[in-house]
UniProtKB/TrEMBL annotation:
<keyword id="KW-0408">Iron</keyword>
<dbReference type="InterPro" id="IPR029052">
    <property type="entry name" value="Metallo-depent_PP-like"/>
</dbReference>
<keyword id="KW-0479">Metal-binding</keyword>
<dbReference type="InterPro" id="IPR041792">
    <property type="entry name" value="MPP_PAP"/>
</dbReference>
<keyword id="KW-0325">Glycoprotein</keyword>
<dbReference type="InterPro" id="IPR025733">
    <property type="entry name" value="PAPs_C"/>
</dbReference>
<feature type="domain" description="Calcineurin-like phosphoesterase">
    <location>
        <begin position="126"/>
        <end position="312"/>
    </location>
</feature>
<keyword id="KW-0862">Zinc</keyword>
<dbReference type="InterPro" id="IPR004843">
    <property type="entry name" value="Calcineurin-like_PHP"/>
</dbReference>
<dbReference type="Pfam" id="PF14008">
    <property type="entry name" value="Metallophos_C"/>
</dbReference>
<feature type="domain" description="Purple acid phosphatase N-terminal">
    <location>
        <begin position="30"/>
        <end position="117"/>
    </location>
</feature>
<feature type="signal peptide">
    <location>
        <begin position="1"/>
        <end position="22"/>
    </location>
</feature>
<dbReference type="Pfam" id="PF16656">
    <property type="entry name" value="Pur_ac_phosph_N"/>
</dbReference>
<dbReference type="InterPro" id="IPR015914">
    <property type="entry name" value="PAPs_N"/>
</dbReference>
<dbReference type="InterPro" id="IPR039331">
    <property type="entry name" value="PAPs-like"/>
</dbReference>
<comment type="similarity">
    <text>Belongs to the metallophosphoesterase superfamily. Purple acid phosphatase family.</text>
</comment>
<keyword id="KW-0732">Signal</keyword>
Amino acid sequence: MKLLGLFLCVTLLFLCPFISQADDDSKSDPQQVHVSLAGKDHMRVTFITEDKEVESVVEYGKQPGKYVGKAFGESTNYGYLYYESGEIHHVKIGPLQSNTIYYYRCGGNGPEFSFKTPPSTFPVEFAIVGDLGQTEWTDATLSQIKSQDYDVFLLPGDLAYAGSLSQSLWDSFGSLVEPLASQRPWMVTEGNHEKEFYINFRSYNARWKMPHTESLSDSNLYYSFDVAGVHTVMLGSYTDFDSYSDQYQWLEADLAKVDRETTPWVVVLMHAPWYNTNEAHKSDGEKMRKAMESLLYSARVDVVFAGHVHGYERFKRVYNNKADPCGPIYITIGGGGRSLAPPFKKHHSKLSVYRESSYGHGRLKVIDGKRAHWSWHRNTDSNSSPGDEFWLESLSASSSCWPSSRSKDEL
Ligand SMILES: [Fe+2]
C-alpha cells in the first residue's frame, strides 16, 4: 500500500509540470481568428489570446507549414466592470498575391489557418448580410454562406448583440464566426448594438479593426476599400453625419477620388436603411438620408446595402423618394439570424420591388465593369433557387447619367 502511495506521488510530481504546461499552451492559443482587407495587397489578421504576454506575430506562406513570411503587429485589451478581455492582436501582412491561398499561424503557436485573397480583376463575389447575432438561425445563415464560395464578406452592422453588460458574448461571437472569418476577409460596419452604454464602440473598435487609416479616415466607424473593380464605402449610422461632420467631409473626399475606369462599381453599406417600408425602425435612417443622399447620388453610387430591419427588401433606383434611373438601388439585408421583423404590411411604396420578413443572405456577383448579378437566399432555399434575383448594370456605363457637358470627374 505504501509502495502504491509512493508511486502515485511520484507520478503526480512527474505529470504536474506537463499539466501546467498544457494549461499555459491553451492560454497562449489564438482564439476568435478573423481576417480583413488592409489596403492594397495586404490583409489584417486579428486574434485573441488569454495570455497577455503572447507576441503579436503572424507567420504565413503559400504552402502548409512553410512560413516564409513573418509580420509583427500591435495588441490591445479592455476591461468593463467585472469583465477583462483577452489580449486582442492585429497584425497586417503582405504584400500578398491576389486570388491565392495563404496558410498562417498566429502568435507563434496553435493551429494552422488558411485564407484566400480576393481576385484583382472581375469576376468578384460578395456575400452580404447584417444583424447576425448568435442564434440557431445565425448557425443556419452561416452554414448556407459557407456552402458556396465567395471572395469577401460584407456585414452592415449588428454583430454579436453583446450589450455592455454581456461582454463575453463578444468572445462567443468571435468563436462562432471564426470558421468563416479566418478564411475570407470579413468587412464590417457598426450597428446600434455595437454602441454599448458608457463604452461607445470600445469593444467593437478593439476587436473589429477595419482599414480606416488605409482609406484616410480618422475613425474606425467609417472607411472604404477597393476589391477588383469595386469601390466599397462603409458608413457609420451612429456617428455624426451632418455636412460639418468629419464623416461627411471624409465621404465627400473619398467619393471625389473614385475613378470609374479602375473601379466601375461603387457600393455603399450602412446599418440603418434610408428606404424601408417595414414598421420596424421606420424612420431611423431618415436624418442621415437627408444629410448625405445627394453625395451618393452625385457620385452615381450603384447600390446601397443596409441592415437593422431583420428581413429583406429591394427598392428600385431611387433619389429623394422618387424613382430615378441615376440613383442607387437600395437593399435591406438584415435577416442574418438575430430575430425577424414583423411581416410587411399590404399597402406599400411603389418604389419597393420585393420584400419579405425571412432569414437569409445576399450575393453580389460582379461579372465585369458593366454587369452584376444580385441574389437573395432564404436559409430554407437551395443555393440554385434564390428567393429574389436580378441583373444590375453599373451606372458608370449609363451615358444618360453622366451629362455630356460635365465629365465623370466633375460630378
Ligand atoms: Fe440594428
